[in-house]
Fold this sequence. Notes:
Blueprint (H helix, E strand, L loop, with lengths): L1 H39 L4 H26 L1
Amino acid sequence: MKWTLLDSFFYNVFRSMGVYLVSINVILGVALIVAGALMNKSLSKNKKTAGTVCIGIGILTIISAVAQMIL
């Protein structure tokens, strides 16, 4: 009985937080894409590489958030 109460508590807490976490995920993905685009304009080859990586991670983050919303 005690575990059922604890399970339902955590289920309700994480269920209500889910919408906010997905929203934060999308915002961070967009921020990474913007930061990556700004880094790609640099003349340094290292910054261009870091910018490309940021854009890739940002795209994956947004895809992950969309998949979480659908499922």
